[in-house]
Specification:
The complex is a heterodimer. Chain A is mostly helical. Chain A has a single domain, classed as MetI-like (MetI-like fold, Orthogonal Bundle), CATH 1.10.3720. Chain A is built from ten helices and no strands. In chain A, helix 1 runs antiparallel to helix 8. Chain B is of the alpha/beta class. Chain B has a domain of about 160 residues: Rossmann fold. In chain B, about 40% of the residues lie in helices and about 25% in strands. Chain B has nine helices and ten strands. In chain B, a hairpin with a 2-residue loop joins strand 1 and strand 2. In chain B, helix 3 packs across helix 4. Chain B is globular. Classes of the chains: A mainly alpha, B alpha/beta. The interface between A and B is large, with 34 and 42 residues. Chain A: Belongs to the binding-protein-dependent transport system permease family. Chain A: Keywords: Amino-acid transport, Cell membrane, Membrane, Transmembrane, Transmembrane helix, Transport. Chain A: It is found in: Cell membrane.
């Protein structure tokens, strides 16, 4: 075990962390936007589209991300060549690998997060929507003001799990030639065959990145839950006090 | 002249005939109490009156406006909901809003009132139900009785022509029922038109101008509280009244 090599390699690996974070963050943002659209289409049961997306979601969730990455890596340029042959002004040869990676991860995120959004939506009591309608709000206002704010706290835990998995899954993009933590580890390790040392460095960096994002998301979840259901933002540890029924009766009279 | 008339209201769900050609009418200031066994269609009936459920057939005439209950226009649905408020069995206060905001939401986003005006109305309503000090409390910080009284305040703040009550005391502990009934009693005395689905027979006897007995999706018998409670005609009504405990 060469600890000097481990320590010397660390700054080189740290220098490519932005790429790992960039792919993860951009993919999750694009994926979430698409996921929201898919979730709306499926919940509104829009004919044809709803069925198409149901199959697509099931397909993406049932296949490995690495295979999806390869399919898009080889398939997207071919699709662009097809469009070019049809007279569309596209340049398949100049498609950056980063675009391919982000496309694959966004598609994966869209499928998985659409289910996360749907499950968060179903966790909100249907009566809340009906009560909003009953006071004269339009369906869209009822969603925006009552249902969506309540589904967000339920959405965050599953979103966090997915996002942390996504960060770890970006380790696969070295397969299509993008230099992020895993690719850089392979390059560094190949100098002197110090694989264990470099992969331990990579392990440590993924752990730190996931810990930081996990903590941020966990604090966000607590903050948002308190903000939505009790209006309190100053403390994220103290629990909301529950009122005793008999005491409340006295107070209420 | 009736304020609201419903003709031939009919609804079937999965081959289950829930409402069978119901004819109904209510005039201004009336308090109609709907009683009947569970599953007889009482809640579905009043949910249809402000379109939280869709009927298969039927027509509504409300404030001289005819509305098809099976395929109402969106504008008509909104218009009716802004004039017929509802109080729910499980309170259904907005969990992400304070007591005050629960009342102002409908005023601002349903009726288009300014925030200042809505706040003023909401504070007055909270005062009427004795919960002014709870204006900033969220539903999770309130007891069942307090929630239901805010539910009533939310409905009355809209100054509706009719308030629908769907078993407003069923989810409450017995010792909390009194305050909610008191509020409803008070509303009735003020001349508020109300349709109340309840199992509280003492409330029906005291406040109702008319009692409807529902069974198997139809109004089996209707009449004054005296007619229904003291001289019921139908065997089914007699069985129901003898089976239920007084004011459970």
């Amino acid at each position: 075990m060469d600890f000097h090599f481990m320590i010397d390699s660390l700054p080189k690996l740290i220098s490519v962390i932005p790429m790992t974070i960039y792919i993860s963050v951009v993919s999750v943002i694009v994926g979430f936007a698409l996921a929201a659209i898919i979730a709306i289409i499926r919940e509104k049961k829009i004919k044809v589209l709803s069925q198409i997306f149901a199959v697509l979601v099931s397909f993406v969730r049932g296949t490995p991300i690495l295979v999806q990455l390869y399919v898009i890596y080889y398939g997207l340029p071919q699709f662009l060549y097809y469009l070019q042959n049809q007279g569309v002004n596209v340049k398949p040869g100049s498609l950056p690998h980063l675009v391919i990676a982000i496309s694959a991860y966004s598609l994966n995120a869209a499928a998985n997060l659409s289910e996360t959004i749907r499950s968060a939506y179903h966790s909100v009591d249907k009566d809340q929507y009906q009560a909003a309608l009953s006071v004269g709000m339009t369906p869209s206002l009822s969603m925006r003001r009552i249902v969506i704010p309540q589904l967000i706290p339920n959405l965050i835990p599953n979103f966090s799990n997915f996002f942390l998995d996504l960060i770890k899954d970006t380790a696969l993009v070295y397969n299509i030639g993008i230099i992020e933590i895993m690719a850089k580890s392979n390059i560094i390790a190949s100098f002197g065959f110090k694989y264990l040392e470099t992969y331990l460095d990579a392990l440590l960096l993924y752990l730190v990145i996931c810990f930081v994002f996990g903590k941020i998301l966990s604090l966000t979840e607590t903050y948002v839950t308190r903000r939505v259901f009790s209006g309190k933002t100053h403390s994220v540890i103290k629990k909301t006090p529950q009122v005793d029924e008999t005491e409340a009766k006295v107070g209420g009279n | 002249m009736p304020l609201l008339t419903v003709n031939q209201l009919d609804k079937t769900v999965d081959n289950n005939h829930i409402l069978k050609n119901i004819d109904f009418q209510i005039s201004k200031g009336e308090v109609i109490v709907v009683i009947g066994p569970s599953g007889s269609g009482k809640t579905t009936f009043i949910s249809n009156l402000n379109f939280l459920n869709n009927a298969d057939k039927g027509e509504m005439n409300f404030r001289d406006k005819k509305i098809d209950l099976s395929s109402p226009k969106k504008d008509d649905v909104l218009w009716v909901r802004r004039h017929i408020a509802m109080v729910f069995q499980n309170y259904n206060l907005f969990k992400n809003k304070t007591a005050l905001e629960n009342i102002t939401e409908g005023l601002i986003h349903g009726q288009g009132k300014s925030r200042d005006e809505a706040n003023q109305i909401a504070l007055e309503e909270l005062k009427n139900v004795g919960l002014s000090e709870k204006k900033d409390a969220y539903p999770s910080q309130l007891s069942g009785g307090q929630k239901q009284r805010i539910g009533i305040a939310r409905a009355t703040a809209l100054k509706p022509d009719i308030i629908l009550f769907d078993e407003p005391t069923s989810a409450l502990d017995p010792e909390l029922v009194g305050t909610v009934v008191q509020d409803m009693d008070h509303l009735a005395q003020q001349g508020q038109t109300m349709i109340v689905v309840t199992h509280l027979m003492s409330f029906a006897k005291k406040v109702a101008t008319k009692v409807l007995f529902f069974a198997d999706g139809a109004i089996l018998e209707s009449g004054t509280p005296d007619q229904i409670f003291n001289h019921p005609k139908e065997k089914r009504t007699k069985e129901f009244l003898s089976a239920i405990a007084e004011d459970r």
